[in-house]
Amino acid sequence: NSTADQNPLSRYQRRDTTPIELRAVAIYILARLNKSSKGDYGTRLHDIIEAGLRNSNSQIRRAAFATAREIPHIAKSIFTALLLGTRDTDPSAATVAYNALATKRNLRLTSSEWQLFAYSLNIAQQSPEVRVRRAAASAVSNFIGQKQAREIISTLRRLQREFADDISWSVREAAKNRK
């Protein structure tokens, strides 16, 4: 008998899926299950996401960023990891981190956290990657409509104008104000 014959699950195994890919998908699936079960996984899911956000593999980090996008209310530690993720060396991971931040409403950030976010947006403007600039421009547009201090709105509007002057049409479109 071959090993495949001895394993009753062998017909369900996929040979083209790596353990990293499986972990990445599992993190995201947990968030979707949590969303449909009205948050039953709670802090345990946050712990899993945080571990994914700290992972050295960019594929796992991307999945954790995408997972954070699915959670309506995130812990401060996850917000901090998303903020750091906007500066990820993997442009795909940075893009997903911006996209996750853009889904958050009514963030109660300190002045220094907003300054750090603005600094990340300034870094994104310098990126050669259109997808990073587009995601950052979209995040700016989404945050402008939220109630913020006057100085923060002023900074976001300046950033929005700068993204609106980008060489890429898709970045300029993402910078348009949304309501």
Account of the protein in words:
The chain is mainly alpha-helical and 179 residues long. 67% of the residues lie in helices and 0% in strands. The chain is built from ten helices and no strands. α2 (19-36) runs antiparallel to α3 (42-53). The protein is globular. The mean pLDDT is 85.
Task: Tag the structure with descriptive keywords.
179 residues, globular, mainly alpha, 67% helix
> H/E series, N to C?
HHHHHHHHHH
Helix content percent band:
55-70%
Global shape: globular
Question: What is the CA-CA span between the terminal residues?
Answer: 64 Å
Brief rundown of the structure:
Helix content is 67%, strand content 0%.
What are the SSEs and their pairings?
Blueprint lengths: L2 H4 L12 H18 L5 H12 L4 H13 L5 H10 L5 H12 L8 H15 L4 H15 L5 H15 L4 H6 L5
